[in-house]
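Our platform keeps sequence and structure together, in a single record for each protein. Nothing more is needed to write down the fold, since each code stands for a local backbone conformation. An entry from our holdings is shown next, in its original layout:
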Amino acid sequence: MAKIKTFFQCQACGYVSPKWLGKCPDCGEWNTLVEEKKESRQGRRPSGRSEPQPLNTITSGKEKRTTTGIKELDRVLGGGVVAGSVILVGGDPGIGKSTVLMQAMAGLSKKYESALYVSGEESPEQIKMRAERLSIDSDRIILLAETSLEGIIDTASKLNPGVIVVDSIQTMYTEEIFSAPGSVGQVRECAARLMLFAKKSGIPVFIIGHVTKEGAIAGPRVLEHIVDTVLYFEGDRGHPYRILRTVKNRFGSTNEIGVFEMTDAGLSEIENPSELFLAERPLNVSGSTVIASIEGTRPLMVEIQALVSPTTFGMPRRTSIGVDFNRVNLLAAVLEKNAGLHLGGMDIFINVVGGLKIIEPAIDLGIVTTIASSLREIPIDPKVFMFGEVGLSGEIRAVAHAEQRIKEAAKIGFKKAVMSRTNQGRLKEFFGLEVFGVKDVEDALEATLGR
């Protein structure tokens, strides 16, 4: 006989408590425990058990990938959509999640007999309006306005589409759980059921997920562990550029990015983002430096700007956009200790142009030199770029993929590269560039600023 079990579950981390608590003891969030109910059936035996097999008796199949027709999306997916994979796409409201998947459906529908677009937030008429704006009109794209997971799976089983898009997972619910759509239990159960359906049928499933104010997928972190690939849309609404970043990918590299531009006709691809990000770079001004970054397997030339000015308050301000705030404070301390720069009474503002967020340590050398350039009012040669990690004692450390960075810079027209001596010694080809190897911060400032 079925029993109804009542419990309280944290909507931030998934912690379960038998009674209500004001503060979650696991994640520390307040007023996040919500009452939920679950039906438990006694004597129910799980079905579909598999038998253990020796490793050498299992035949490995080659990954079958289908291209979407959008090169930047195929790049972040690792070359295309893998059959039976589950892909989670997250991002801020209005950033372009539904738009890019509708464009991907248009490309995939040319290779499959049908593609199913499930929406729990919009009516078919609203989706049709978006499709008309994107100039998409295909009889192979099937629209379904449904929020019941059982109804979605039944329809998909009958249609047998080539791909499924679920927009969004927070609006779906299963009848086996008595909690509201969007709760931790519903999100987790619906994602798990979709994953099982994708693996059994071989149909790839795209899931759109809302994000919280902190920028994480709404719901428990287990949602990201269930799926095969997690993609995040990044970008400022003040900029037309959108960055699609791979956070997790079981079928390709992580931290791969695709660059798009939001237009009236949808998202257009940016095939050479380095030239785009440097198109409006001011020349011969202080506080501007170009660094060579690697995002996944793609080299990017990015401009970093710094503004250093005397503070008008008792406590100097430190602000960074696109780079880690604590990293900027650390590098400012290295400059004071090892290069003799007096930054204790200075406000420091750091910005990565174009709305990019860079987390790799190769950006350290660019931050150090652009701060010194702004402080001393000495411009850096616009034909110079740099990369390297800065240690706490002021040493410049080597980073990976040096030749890829140099090759990308040479294509754009840079003439001089500044890097660690270790990287310089490992280079097999210079691509016509003048390469300077530096051992510490003082050497780097001498090579870029001349003093």
